[in-house]
Design a protein that fits this description.
Elements: H1 5-15, H2 54-57, H3 61-68, E1 78-79, H4 90-130, E2 137-140, H5 143-153, E3 162-166, H6 171-184, E4 187-191, H7 199-212, E5 216-222, H8 234-243, E6 247-251, H9 263-266, E7 270-274, E8 286-290, H10 324-339, H11 341-359, E9 365-367, E10 380-384, H12 390-404, E11 406-407, E12 409-411, E13 419-422, H13 430-446
Parallel strand pairs: 1-11, 3-4, 3-5, 5-6, 6-7
Antiparallel strand pairs: 2-8, 7-8, 9-10, 10-13, 12-13
Domain Aminotransferase class V: 95-386
GO molecular function: transaminase activity
InterPro entries: Aminotrans_V_dom (IPR000192), PyrdxlP-dep_Trfase (IPR015424), PyrdxlP-dep_Trfase_major (IPR015421), PyrdxlP-dep_Trfase_small (IPR015422)
Length: 449
Amino acid sequence: MVLSRRQMVAGFGALAVPLTQPQSLMKPLAPPVPPPAAPPASPDLVAAPAGVPPERLAEDEGFWRNVARQFRVSSDFVNLENGYYGIMPEPVRREYHRDVDHLNERNSYLLRTEYKPRADEIRGRVAQTLGAAREEIAFTRCGTEALQNLIGGYRRLRPGDSVMYSDLDYHSAQYAMNWLADRRGVRVERMVVPEPPTRQATLDAYAQALRDHPNVRLLLLSHMNNRTGLVLPVREIVAMARERGVDVIVDAAHSWGHLDFTIDDLGADFAAFSLHKWMGVPLGSGFLYIRRGRLDDVDLAYDDETYPADDIRSRVHSGTMDVAPVLSIPTALDFHDALGAAVKQARLRYLRDRWVHQVRDIPNVEILTPEEPPMYGTITAFRISGRVSEADNVAISDHLFDRYRIFTVRRGGPARGDCVRVTPALFTSRDDVDLLALAVRDVAGRFSA
């Protein structure tokens, strides 16, 4: 509503009330006003039909077209770079806009009175979905912040100890591990995950690395790495590390909401999660996990006194942050639950298999995830043999976009060279990945070394 000048003047006049007016004339503070009622959720939530096996439903394009209609996606290109940010489905996007408006209207009053108890309820629901206790998780602004707080705050290291990560771990987490050399006076070790990987070869590589470096006391482990999409057998590696007195911090930013698991399936005492990748929560949302009984092994964040030392939230201090993403989490979890983790996992693996199995016969196309379903989801990288430089792989991803309007991304970091990462999403169609398979055949010929 646009106010006229007369209305504005009248409004300012109304404010000019003597401060000494009788108490009986002063209006009491209005009670908290809840946000406007959300539209009914049921028409927007596409529920997986009961009794249909996830692997069978994964192939039902009619069902997944209905799911895709819940996402607003540009038709200018085929987006196969969904690992950076997993966009919100429409119910979440609308709820987020409502939460932004409600925050803007209620302002500091919401932050000081309504938000904290509501956030604690939401924290409980996130924990329940993970299979954890509310007291074991704390919200962060992203998975990166969660990793930095766990790595930087881990306090059991002593000068002369070592820490270790692999070539496939997230670069920001590698940087945080490197920082421990000065912060804690430790040695930093780097190992290489075998390529091509298999479950046994990967387990053997971690076992050998731990034997070769007996002073390692902290290991970074990516459940699903962001470079090639390889899914590690985390539980087994955590167990072998624990036998040697090594603690593990698990990076689960890409796996939660993508794969079907709970925290007990990982066996980890420390882990970091993103909510804005595969759970469809607005950007700026994640959380860290510290198993009950291990809280004392992580420093308070900057000697935080906002919460007691025995409260996990004292291990995070983000300052004043955008709380609207947190308030939108329940709607995102509703969307996730309506489909189910097993159904999402099956569809995402199906999309990966659909294009990979069409190009496996091409001699110079290297697929960097193995044909072992527990070791991959939908993220998969490929490399053209001999094309291992950054420039090569930027050129390949550029060609995919310029000629086929397929958006992918070059990834660096693997010890044997750069690659192109492909990341479908729930809204990706079978036709989209079939087009990619056709394009990869073209690339294999055009960029043959």
